[in-house]
Write a structure and sequence with these properties.
The protein is of the alpha+beta class and about 170 residues long. About 25% of the residues lie in helices and about 40% in strands. The chain is globular, with a radius of gyration of 16 Å.
Length: about 170
């Protein structure tokens, strides 16, 4: 399978709009309807490529399969890191695309940013994402108690990370 990450094109904004408006698209991360106006505005201003954050299309065999996102965080005074996330269209799930895209994004971030750590969070019930992160070279660090408000309750999260010196997976 030919897999690559690339900038978002205007004709692909509906993928991001669907993520913000359709609870069935990503049920384990659904937190309610969100405005799509911000999507259009951010694309017009930066094409989703800003200093410290971005979104890229995951392209599989020439088709847009979903998107990855990254954003910088800070631990203490000088501990910059990036967090990543992914959303794949339903027809592209379960084919090994997600873990490869996350590994590729992590490699990209280590190549272009002076960071030591890339992290990703997921939900305890999202077994597929937990497996994908492990395949992508991440290590489970632990449980973040009451990390997010979702579906009417505070829910725990799981934290994974990959450090610059950790061995990258083969993809």
């Amino acid at each position: 399978m030919d897999l690559r990450l690339r900038p978002v094109r205007a004709d692909e904004l509906d993928i991001l709009r669907t993520f913000a408006q359709d609870p069935a698209f990503a049920p384990t991360t659904w937190v309610g309807f969100r405005s799509v106006n911000k999507i259009d505005k951010e694309f017009a201003e930066s094409g989703f490529l800003e200093d410290g954050k971005g979104r890229l299309i995951v392209e599989a065999d020439g088709s847009a399969a979903g998107f990855v996102a990254y954003w910088k965080g800070l631990y203490g005074v000088q501990g910059e890191w990036c967090e990543i996330g992914i959303a794949l269209l339903p027809e592209f799930r379960g084919r090994g695309i997600g873990w490869r895209a996350q590994a590729m994004l992590t490699d990209y971030l280590f190549e272009h940013l002076p960071i030591e750590r890339v992290q990703a969070g997921t939900q305890p019930e999202n077994i597929a994402e937990q497996k994908a992160l492990l395949k992508a070279g991440f290590t489970r660090e632990g449980v973040i108690r009451a990390a997010e408000w979702r579906s009417g309750a505070w829910r725990d999260g799981l934290l994974y990370s990959r450090l610059r010196h950790d061995p990258p997976p083969e993809y």
